[in-house]
Design brief:
Distance between the termini: 185 Å
Largest sheet: 9 strands, antiparallel
Radius of gyration: 61 Å
Order of helices and strands: HHEEEEEEEEEEEH
Structural class: alpha+beta
Number of helices: 3
């Protein structure tokens, strides 16, 4: 009986010894450390008070890592053409353009005088009445004839005195009218002007429309036809500036006195 008891006790001790050996050599799971650690405190940044402007605030010794800047999401622009005015800077070396008024004034100062002015030469005209000198002429262009301006030069001369062409040109029209009597229209070489001879006694032989006459060539004779006084024969002479249509009976009257007074 005692022997059986010792055998059982030894068996139990062997079982416990085997279990202990297996438990020691078996792999174990890591043990979690459940110790509660204190939460790190962020550095206290002093808030400036009313007296902050009076005393300097020392910077914190603990470095503060700035938070990354948030990226702004810009939506894609729609595919729409937009006109953008871009101001282009003028180079400093290029002077600004002068005002329009200054340019206009400068251009006007370089223009030739108007064609109807006395200073505009129509050519070297001769006095259309043979034997008359420049000093014998009288400017009666602006005198009144009834209710109208004369707008011509009356050159007094005996009846039958030859009338000559003041310049080269073409005979544009031979015409008889109630006020002008026997008249003759001659174009200048450019056909921008017409010379008007009126109150003629008759035309010279060979004068026909379309004929080219030369300066000083006899084209007619002084008379008093039309509304001229029979006892005061003279040549009624003027110059017309023609329009684009070159109508011999229509134009702007130009005083011939300055041109004939300067004749040689």
């Amino acid at each position: 009986m005692k022997g059986f008891f010792l055998f059982a006790l030894g068996a139990i001790c062997g079982i416990f010894a085997a279990w202990a050996w297996l438990d020691y050599n078996s792999p174990r799971e890591p043990t979690l450390d459940r110790t509660i650690l204190p939460r790190p405190q962020s550095p206290q940044v002093p808030v400036p008070g009313p007296e902050a402007s009076a005393r300097p605030v020392a910077p914190s010794t603990m470095p503060i890592t700035p938070a990354p800047a948030a990226q702004e999401v810009v939506p894609a622009a729609p595919n729409v053409a937009v006109a953008v005015d871009v101001a282009v800077a003028r180079p400093a070396s290029i002077p600004p353009a002068p005002p329009t008024q200054a340019i206009t004034s400068a251009s006007n100062s370089l223009q030739a005088p108007p064609e109807s002015s006395p200073g505009k030469p129509l050519g070297n005209l001769v006095i259309p009445v043979a034997g008359v000198q420049p000093r014998q002429l009288r400017d009666n262009f602006d005198e009144r004839r009834g209710n109208e301006r004369h707008e011509a030069l009356d050159i007094m001369a005996p009846r039958g005195t030859p009338v000559v062409a003041v310049e080269d040109g073409r005979i544009a029209k031979l015409f008889t009218s109630k006020p002008g009597g026997i008249t003759l229209y001659q174009f200048d070489p450019t056909e921008k002007y017409a010379y008007y001879y009126a109150h003629l006694d008759r035309y010279a032989q060979g004068i026909v429309e379309g004929k080219i006459v030369r300066k000083g060539e006899i084209i007619g004779y002084v008379g008093s036809t039309g509304n001229a006084s029979p006892d005061a024969p003279h040549l009624h002479f003027t110059i017309y500036q023609l329009g684009p249509d070159k109508r011999w009976w229509k134009g702007t009257s130009i005083n011939p006195y300055p041109y004939l007074a300067a004749a040689h």
